[in-house]
Amino acid sequence: MRHLIDIMDLSVKEIDELIDRAEDIIANPESYREKCRYKKLATLFFEPSTRTRLSFEAAMLELGGSVLGFSEAQSSSASKGESVSDTIQTVSCYADIIAMRHPKEGAPLAASLKSGVPIINAGDGGHNHPTQTLTDLLTIKRELGRLEGFTVGFCGDLKFGRTVHSLISALSRYENIKIVLISPEELRVPGYVRDEILKKNKIEYTEVGSMTDVMDTLDILYMTRVQRERFFNEDDYLRLRDSYILTPDKLENAKSGLKILHPLPRVNEISTAVDDDPRACYFKQVKNGKYIRMALILKLLSEVR
Amino acid sequence: MTIDSIKNGIVLDHIRAGQSMELYRILGLSELDCSVAIIKNVQSGKMGRKDIIKIDAQIDLDLDVLGYVDPGITVNIIRDGKRIEKRHVELPRLVRGVIRCKNPRCITSTEQDIEHVFRLTDRDRRVYRCVYCESKAKPQI
Fold it and tell me: Given this model, what pLDDT does residue A49 score?
């Protein structure tokens, strides 16, 4: 049984194929309208989400399939203390494929060990978010025209930002990528990202505290939200919340071809005044997310034996 | 000091001095009914001092656990009073059920009956990480 738990579960060739498939879906949506007829997607969201859950559901509906599931742990038997393992074994009886978000790191991997149908990790705590990474890669490919030979700056909460960890992993396999990590000391990338991904793959990277100092070097600026739900301590959250806010004046020295990405939701880290800047790509990302998830659902269902 | 030779069993040799009790615990040797001898601070040409454990029974030892705890250990299989095999252990790729993940954000902190599994991610530095959350294992010994 094939699952998507970590972006590294997919080879570069498979990612390229998914991107090609997504491009084909964008160009020829009508030819995909019946591809998942009579198939059911379960969206099990033990943690709230707007984009990811609706994106998965829209993706399955556009493929002609149907959806079932829950959008918070309180409306499932998890609130009665049911284990992830039992929930998954139950839902496997009803659905053909499962997209799952859970606050605990590794929950989708634990689920995949017991599941009779493909599991897609739709975000596990501060750990991984591989379908956001596929969305980011599709967006970079469409906006920049390539997946190699660029400098990307990650800004904000790099410690708990699961989208950052997954995208850094994915980019480690492409040629000539330079990474600039922009964050306060307390929110720097975890040791495993630095040691096991950046250093091990000899990726050129720098860690800096100021966004404006490096702005002119960037081809991609990947903004992230400082996430309240990842902090045990409210004071720490409040102290770091406003650390890195992107405003039009900070873009003065940026390249004209810069692409600004953000996995969303945002709180205040990108001023709404930036939304009309042609370099802002975050709402295009949202749209791309649906298409790449359609491609992924098709792939995983086609590999079920 | 005299310790009887064993006839059929296992001798764990080249254990780093002072580590044999921890190994005894991790391997669950207290559960055995047979004789188990722990010999500490034995003179060793190679190691200066070393510990040895003799187990007077033919049991299945988890070589992965031994390799994780100390890849320098040698395992001698004894039959009819003679050594018939000498095995060198190595760092295992996966360690199951020995190390516990301490990360409160990891699924292992709440999911009952889940096996704690750690993966070797850096052989040179002997780094093991939880397969679920990637937290680094604290060295056992």
Answer: 85
CATH number of the structural domain spanning residue A21: 3.40.50.1370
| SS3 state of residue A302 | helix
Please name the amino acid found at residue A141: K
Same domain, A138 and A116: no
B111 contacts on A by Cβ (under 8 Å): 83-85, 104, 107, 110
In CATH, what number does B9-88 get?
Answer: 3.30.70.140
Q: Return d(Cα A67, Cα A41) in angstroms, integer.
A: 5
Residue A1 in any domain: the answer is no
Q: Mean pLDDT, consecutive 10-residue segments, chain A of 305 residues?
A: 96 98 98 97 92 96 96 70 91 97 96 97 92 98 97 93 91 96 90 90 94 95 83 75 84 96 91 96 96 98 92
User: Does A99 lie in the same domain as A70?
Assistant: yes
What amino acid positions of A are annotated as catalytic residues? 51-52, 80, 101, 129
Residue A122 neighbours by CB under 8 Å, 6+ apart: A43, A45, A49, A52, A53, A56, A99, A100, A101, A108, A129, A131
| Cβ <8 Å between A191 and B136 | yes
What does the domain layout of chain B look like in residue ranges? 9-88, 94-130
Which structural domain, as residue segments, surrounds residue A140? 130-285
Residue of A6, A85, A105, A109 best to disrupt the B interface, most CBs of B under 10 A: A105
* Contact between B79 and B86 (Cβ < 8 Å): no
Q: Which residue in chain A has the smallest CA separation from B123?
A: A196
| Domain tally, chain A | 2
pLDDT tens digits, B80-129? 989 999 999 999 999 998 899 999 999 999 998 899 999 999 888 889 99
Q: Which residues contact A162 (CB under 8 A, 6 or more apart)?
A: A123, A124, A125, A126, A127, A128, A129, A132
Task: Check residue A72 and give its pLDDT.
Answer: 76
Q: Are residues A111 and A166 in the same domain?
A: no
CA-based nearest residue to A123, from A246, A7, A288, A244:
A7
A271 in a structural domain: yes
- Which of B94, B100, B107 should one mutate to test binding to chain A, selecting the residue with the greatest count of A CBs within 10 A? B107
Find the CB nearest A104 among B106, B121, B136. B106
Nearest-CA distance A226 → chain B (Å):
17
